[in-house]
Amino acid sequence: MTQGANGQSLRLVAPMWNGTRGIHRLGGAVVPEGNQKKERKMLQFLNNHFYDVEALRGYLLQREMSKVHLKNRSFTWLEEQHGPYSAGAFFILKQGGAVKFRDKEWIRPDKYGHFSPEFWNFREVPVEAVDASDCEINYEGLDNLLLLKELQSLSLQRCPHVDDWCLSRLYPLADSLQELSLAGCPRVSERGLACLHHLQNLRRLDISDLPAVSNPGLTQILVEEMLPNCQVVGVDWAEGLKLGPEEQPQDTASPVPA
Amino acid sequence: MIRRVLPHGLGRGLLTRRPGTRRGGFSLDWDGKVSEIKKKIKSILPGTPCDVLPDTSHLPPEHSDVVVVGGGVLGLSVAYWLKQLENRRGGMRVLVVERDHTYSQASTGLSVGGICQQFSLPENIQLSLFSASFLRNINEYLAVTNAPPLDLQFNPSGYLLLASEKDAAAMESNVKVQKQEGAKVCLMSPDQLRNKFPWINTEGVALASYGMENEGWFDPWCLLHGLRQKVGVFFCQGEVTRFVTSSQRMMTTDDEMVTLKSIHEVHVKMDHSLEYQPVECAIVINAAGAWSAQIAALAGIGKGPPGTLQGTKLPVEPRKRYVYVWHCPQGPGLETPLVADTSGAYFRREGLGSNYLGGRSPAEEEEPDPANLEVDHDFFQEKVWPHLALRVPAFETLKVQTAWAGYYDYNTFDQNGVVGPHPLVVNMYFATGFSGHGLQQAPGVGRAVAEMILEGSFQTIDLSPFLFNRFYLGEKTQENNIM
After folding, report:
1. Angle B73-85/B220-229 helices, nearest 10 degrees?
2. CA distances in angstroms from B232 to A41, B76, B306, listed in the order given
3. I need a surface site. Which of A57, A115, B146, B157 has the fewest CB within 10 A?
4. Does B467 score more than 80 pLDDT?
5. What φ, ψ does residue B374 adopt, rounded to 5°?
6. Which CATH fold topology does A75-233 show?
7. Which domain of life does the UniProt lineage start with (chain A) (predicted)?
8. CA–CA separation, B102 vs B108, rounded Å?
């Protein structure tokens, strides 16, 4: 790796690949530093002048999307053989999430993606809780999740493809769902939160750290009005307020000043 | 936002028209070089009467396979699907001609932006369902490398239609059809309504139908911008003033003489000048919205004795509709769907700040004059507010912030769209007349017209009830749930 004049390293081979992967994270917001900006500009220049580069990037984008589609394919055919709970649990476990059947322990896949096959025997045991954090579930994949009719707790933290359309599909779980967490989902906005009013049994809702919500404090108030029996967690009402001039933040390393 | 981007889009579309750039694209400042060369020639040979390289960059191309008249959401949707479904990449040249690049009177931008599946015709329901899935996956359909992903600002809050006693039976049968087609709609009694939405006054309501999924409202400008930035289509700003047709007389099987016309040239006139460009074309698509009847008349549709096929005009005319925005601090909360009252008045939330927008379709005899887009505020006071205040008591105190008016491309025959070719003018295809639900059906209709052109028949959704023939045959395809 050669060193540039101002001491920043110029990676000559790696940038193209990192650049394409960065662009294809459709939901992610990347803070561009000096290096990445140069890579972006070079990539844009090449894209505008060569059909080959444009076609290659288009192809890579399509491939990323078809990978997500493959992960969210339908597992409902497993329902007649193993029952809806096992089918839904299998989908979650394959995605990398964790499930908890009633009166049993949490089943999690290990770092290689393997999980114990004991849940295939739990035909009649309903799934109580699902932890689908960081999973690539999207709108089609919810077909499989909605097989779990008696789900009580659902965690969709930091799921990159869960958006407002997905939230409008959660109403079939209204009778049983008591806990829902959407913290850190980049595509969920206040418009999707409006369709959570069907979930009247919800007791705990976590809507912290939602970058797409335009006004977090006001949204929290409106959601609390909409779901009077629910404890809405996540946003401090002082979020939208600025610090006074005497109280500057101590650490200057943080990229976004409070 | 769209106004900044539009000139950029125009420039990219017409790039290959300039001489020399067809081959390469390496000369990055061709315009500057051309004007320098012209100046040099003028200085060397002063007094040359003719321009050496006349600048025709603002004119449309001289040949185009398909000319789409009208650059609103329907026209752009047809152009998009033609490019998607063509067999060879770059195999078809599509030119979209739009008279007003600011879209100041276009129905698309002035629309409320709602999408719902609660129709009575199965074809309308299927079109709406497909459009919902198009909008949901809009970043897969309209992805452009280097551009940020599109954010439609979709509110999935659904539609709530209220019915009085006399309409309740019709609503029940409609909901049955909708459920059969796959729409997620449920019926609610007045008690359930009061439970779910405590701010509603259910006096006079016998039944309500509530759409749970795939229904709501979105930003139509974003869809328009997304369709425009998808490359491959030429845009031109101009007005279509003339069609040059050639006719052929043929005998039908019943030994009748019939004159079939085909358009082979379109004259596009530039703004603020008499300059026009004749564009040779193979197919013309009429997606001119509220002004489709004028375009059809230019092609000779309707010129003939009344009662015959030649004399059947396109029954689409502009109808003015008002939309009012008001502020009501104690109004319904975040969960409010788009509520359509028994009286025809409708409203929905707008944003987080207790703003609402809505309106009402006037009765036939109260139709406002469509000559301009001036807003009549008395209409709100007398015809809209009383019904809203009756249905939602919180709306008794409200303050109107702003209002605007837009055109419906109203089909006076049966309030449903006209899709498909004309029987006599063989290469003119219609995609117009949707009477207020054009935006929500645009992706589906665009695909249907593209299939009709490329394959010869409707492949995915069969829109034969929407063909032009029905105006001559007198068969109405009536849609009952129009707002």
Report:
1. 40
2. 23, 12, 42
3. B146
4. yes
5. -75, 145
6. 3.80.10
7. Eukaryota
8. 12
> What is the average pLDDT value for chain A, to the nearest integer?
80
ipTM of the complex: 0.80
Cα separation, A46 vs A52, in Å, equals 9
pLDDT the model gives residue A243: 61
Closest-CA residue to A115 (of A124, A105, A123, A125): A105
Could you give the CA distance from residue B456 to residue B475 in angstroms, rounded to a whole number? 23
Burial class (CB in 10 A: 0-12, 13-18, 19+), B415: buried
Interface with B, mutate which of A195, A224, A225, A232 (most B CBs under 10 A): A195
pLDDT at residue B50 in the model: 57
CA-wise closest residue to B183 among B140, B141, B130: B130
pLDDT per residue as tens digits for the range A70-89: 989 988 888 888 888 999 99
Pairwise CA distance, residues A16 & A21, whole Å: 9
The DSSP letter of residue A245 is: T
Phi, psi of B363 (to 5 degrees): -70, 165
> Do residues B138 and B440 make contact, with C-beta atoms less than 8 angstroms apart?
no
Contacts of A139 in chain B (CB under 8 A): 136
Q: Check: CB of residue B38 under 8 Å from CB of residue B45.
A: no
- Which residues of chain B are within 8 Å of residue A219 when distances are taken between CB atoms? 352
- For an interface test with A, the pick among B219, B334, B336, B354 (most A C-beta atoms closer than 10 Å) comes out as B334
Could you give the C-alpha distances from B333 to A219, B330, B392, B394, in angstroms and in order?
Answer: 11, 8, 12, 11
Count the Cβ atoms, other than its own, within 10 Å of residue B231: 12
Q: Does residue A165 belong to the interface with chain B, where contact is any CB pair within 8 Å?
A: yes
d(CA A113, CA A166): 25
- Judge: B154–A139 Cβ closer than 8 Å, yes or no: no
Rounded mean pLDDT, B453-462 = 93
> Under 8 Å CB-to-CB from B4, ≥6 apart: which residues?
none
Q: What is the pLDDT of residues B142-168, one digit of tens each?
A: 888 778 888 899 999 999 999 999 999
State the pLDDT confidence band at B27, using cuts at 50, 70 and 90.
Answer: low
Residue ranges in chain A assigned as alpha helix (H)? 14-24, 34-49, 51-71, 79-82, 84-95, 142-145, 164-167, 190-193, 216-226
The CATH fold of domain B57-113+219-315+412-482: FAD/NAD(P)-binding domain (3.50.50)
Which residue, chain included where needed, has tokens 């003339």? Answer: B242
Residues of B with CB under 8 A from a CB of A: 25-26, 136, 139-140, 143, 145-146, 149, 153-158, 212-214, 216, 333-335, 352-353
pLDDT band of A33, cuts 50, 70, 90: low
Q: Which among B326, B377, B380 is positioned nearest to B353, based on CA atoms? A: B326
Tokens of B53: 């390289």
Q: Rounded to 5 degrees, what are φ and ψ at A239?
A: -60, -40
